[in-house]
From TrEMBL, chain A:
InterPro entries recorded: AAA+_ATPase (IPR003593), ABC_transporter-like_ATP-bd (IPR003439), ABC_transporter-like_CS (IPR017871), P-loop_NTPase (IPR027417)
Limits of the ABC transporter domain: 9-236
GO molecular function, one term: ATP binding
PANTHER family, alphabetized: ABC TRANSPORTER G FAMILY MEMBER 20 ISOFORM X1, ATP-BINDING CASSETTE, SUB-FAMILY H, MEMBER 1
Organism for this UniProt entry: Chitinophaga oryziterrae
Protein's UniProt name: ATP-binding cassette domain-containing protein
TrEMBL record, chain B:
The keyword Transferase appears for this protein: no
Gene3D superfamilies, per the entry: abc type-2 transporter like domain (3.40.1710.10)
Organism, scientific name: Chitinophaga oryziterrae
Domain ABC transmembrane type-2 positions: 122-349
GO cellular component: plasma membrane
Record's protein name: ABC transporter permease
Length: 300, 351
């Protein structure tokens, strides 16, 4: 039975292996109702596997999970009625037009486009000029918008978006996240995954993932706040040599046009780079990517 | 129900927007029927022969004229029999000895590297040459070629080709269409919807049943109007039996789709894997009676074998349901089994 008081998505000790490879290792987390939750991690971190377990497409080897109060194994039919799912790969009918795809999925979910048009209006209006175009002929950003419309047309309780912004241009990515913020205001629980660390800040809460485990789970601000050391950005005329020099003493990695260094004091750092010219050292606030790298090193 | 109809409509969109499918659907049967009807035939027509007439008298000339008049033979003007055989120019040679009038003997030489043709040709020639019996009484065999008095070779092939074409088209198209959903990832979305997975299977089958029946009509029209093959039995019965056969092939296609992951594999299994057994074990090219027991047992598991019998009985012999009820029952049993297995095997999850 659905328990309105409990969380929208709950995973408890979920493990999934494919042959020898462990995709998800003893994973537990939960997502609150109406939350915009992000799974952040590189390819192969196990994000898609989690989505497939939650959308009842895969059975976990161990552990239990519920979506909107329903068990993913026992009550799979109930879950399939109330979730929206957008797989990582564009998965609409390429030979059907925009309109035909939308109508098809609306009917499949036992509703009509008219009935729930308010839900998708804002998004659909952007692709409406192309409604007679075949889905396969749309640009990447348009495809994502259409896929989102199709996943939303039945007013799902929980929306699962597996890497919706991968392969989409920067402008469309930004638009897409704005759309998600608006959907959140309508009370839909959204679980979204992305390999882009810069998108993490747009979520309410995030789980940083690597190799099937969660490194850290909290709000983006809290995760950044928990960064233990001072972080410095360093630049010099010979970046390659600089990286080699600092690596001997501290954690150091390329970050844009700078190197990010942590684990040593500013004075010590200034000492190590003495031989370089055009040196710039400045203190920076850690981003999610810094936190991720930090956690990764600690994990290893 | 509305979901089901929308799903079926979507399948039609797929078919009519894909040239490759359309080609398989309507090009393949037309080509097969015309090929088997015209090009590929076991009849012997216009066989080249050499006639060496050393007698050159009235009797020999008369016989040569008779041979020439038949449609089976084309007389080659050459003289060198051995060379012509070696070159493969002629199938047969007839030699009249110089003393034909007294000796009353003719030599017939045939190229037996193809034994069936050699036998057929010598039979034809003997029939033409045989003089009226010199016995005091004469036996005149009155032969009657039942169901096909004009010995139209297409009559044997048409039911076989119908079985072959329906078998291949139904299995191929259904299996490919389901596997395509898997390959494109749309199956993932279909599964994460309230739509019953069983309906996915059925909604896939319905459009192809309709299209296959269209195909069947196309083949019938070609047979009747192009190949002069009659339909003697009840058209309704023929359609009912064909629908049954089509459903059994569709189920086989669904089954293939549940064990394959890519369109190529599905296509290969259903086209190559089905084509050979159908050609071998249906009995329209190679008589099943001549096969060793194990092969005859295998042939019982090929649905097209039973369907071929039914079509021959209904279409060519004009027999009613009472003549084919056993075969119909076997076919129905196969259909139910295959359909049940494929629905049972249809996965409600990935992997």
């Amino acid at each position: 039975m659905p328990q309105q008081s409990s969380d929208a998505v709950i995973l408890t000790n979920i493990t999934k292996t494919y042959g020898e490879t462990t995709a998800v290792k003893d994973l537990s987390f939960s997502v609150k109702h109406g939350e915009l939750f992000g799974l952040i991690g590189p390819d192969g971190a196990g994000k898609s596997t989690i989505f497939r377990i939650l959308t009842t497409l895969l059975l976990a080897d161990a552990g239990v999970a519920t979506v909107d109060g329903y068990d993913v194994v026992k009550d799979y039919r109930e879950i399939r009625k109330r979730v929206g799912y957008m797989p990582g790969k564009f998965s609409l009918y390429q030979d059907l037009t925009v309109e035909e795809n939308l109508h098809f999925f609306a009917t499949l979910f036992g509703t009509t486009v008219k009935e729930n048009y308010s839900m998708i209006k804002e998004i659909y209006e952007q692709i409406a000029p192309f409604k007679t175009r075949r889905a396969g002929k749309l640009s990447g950003g348009m495809k994502q918008k259409l896929a989102l419309c199709c996943a939303l047309i039945h007013r799902p309780e929980v929306l699962f978006l597996d890497e919706p912004t991968t392969g989409v241009d920067a402008v469309s990515r930004k638009e897409f996240w704005e759309m998600l913020q608006r959907l959140k205001q309508q009370g839909i629980t959204i679980v979204v995954s992305t390999p882009y660390m810069d998108e993490a800040d747009l979520c309410e809460r995030i789980a940083l993932m690597q190799s099937g485990s969660i490194l850290s789970i909290d709000t983006p601000a809290a995760i950044k706040h928990a960064y233990p050391d001072e972080l410095y950005a360093v630049k010099s005329a010979n970046m390659h040599q600089l990286l080699k020099d600092i690596r001997q003493y501290a954690s150091c990695y390329a970050f844009g046009e700078y190197l990010h260094v942590s684990g040593i004091s500013e004075n010590a750092l200034a000492g190590y780079v003495k031989g370089h010219t055009d040196v710039i050292i400045k203190k920076v606030a850690p981003g999610i990517e810094d936190c991720f790298i930090r956690l990764l090193l600690k994990h290893e | 129900m509305k979901q089901f109809l929308v799903f079926v409509r979507k399948e039609f969109y797929h078919v009519f927007r894909d040239r490759r499918t359309l080609l398989i659907l309507f090009g393949l049967p037309t080509m097969q029927i015309l090929l088997f009807g015209y090009a590929l035939t076991t009849e012997v027509k216009n066989a080249k022969i050499i006639v060496v007439d050393q007698a050159k008298d009235a009797a020999s000339q008369q016989l040569i004229a008779k041979i020439n008049a038949s449609t089976y033979f084309d007389i080659d003007p050459g003289e060198d029999i051995e060379a012509a055989f070696k070159r493969g120019n002629i199938r047969c040679a007839v030699v009249f000895p110089a003393d034909f009038e007294n000796e009353k003997r003719i030599q017939i030489v045939a190229d037996a590297s193809d034994p069936n043709t050699a036998k057929t040709l010598t039979n034809y020639l003997t029939a033409i040459i045989q003089p009226p019996s010199a016995q005091p009484y004469q036996i005149i065999p009155v032969t009657r070629m039942l169901y096909n008095p004009s010995l139209n070779g297409s009559m044997n092939f048409v039911p076989g080709v119908i079985a072959l074409v329906l078998m291949i088209i139904c299995t191929t198209l259904t299996s490919v269409s389901i596997v395509r959903e898997k390959e494109n990832g749309t199956m993932e979305i279909l599964l994460v919807s309230p739509f019953n997975p069983t309906y996915v299977v059925l909604a896939k089958a319905v459009p192809y049943l309709v299209l296959s029946l269209l195909d069947f009509i196309l083949i019938l029209l070609l047979s009747v109007f192009v190949l002069d093959v009659p339909i003697r039995g009840s058209l309704l019965l023929l359609f009912a039996e064909s629908s049954l056969f089509i459903i059994s092939c569709l189920s086989l296609g669904l089954l293939i789709s549940s064990v394959t992951q890519s369109q190529q594999t599905a296509m290969l299994i259903s086209m190559m894997g089905m084509m050979l057994p159908t050609i071998l074990f249906t009995g329209f090219i190679f008589p099943l009676e001549n096969m060793p027991l194990p092969l005859r047992i295998i042939s019982n598991f090929i649905p097209s074998r039973w369907y071929y019998f039914i079509v021959k009985a209904v279409m060519l012999k004009g027999l009613g349901f009472w003549a084919v009820w056993k075969q119909t029952l076997v076919l129905a049993g196969m259909t139910v089994t295959l359909l049940t297995i494929s629905i049972k095997r249809f996965k409600i999850r990935l992997a």
